[in-house]
Amino acid sequence: MPQNKLIYFGLLIIVATAAIYVGGKLISQIEWFLPYAAGVGLLVVAAGIVQEAKKKQTPKPETPPSEPSQSSEAG
Length: 75
Fold this sequence. Notes:
single chain, 2 helices, about 65% helix, elongated
């Protein structure tokens, strides 16, 4: 990590610019796929909501209270 704040700020600008450039190039290549990816994401969220709704509808099985263990009275 550079001690000089100007060097740090300059490196930050260079890295941010490179990331924006690469992102712009990448988005131009996969632009056609983005609506499909959003659709898949919506379907996954809907499936999760349905799954949670089904979980809440099924009653939990009642378990009988467990008896205290008698392992200490083995003597």
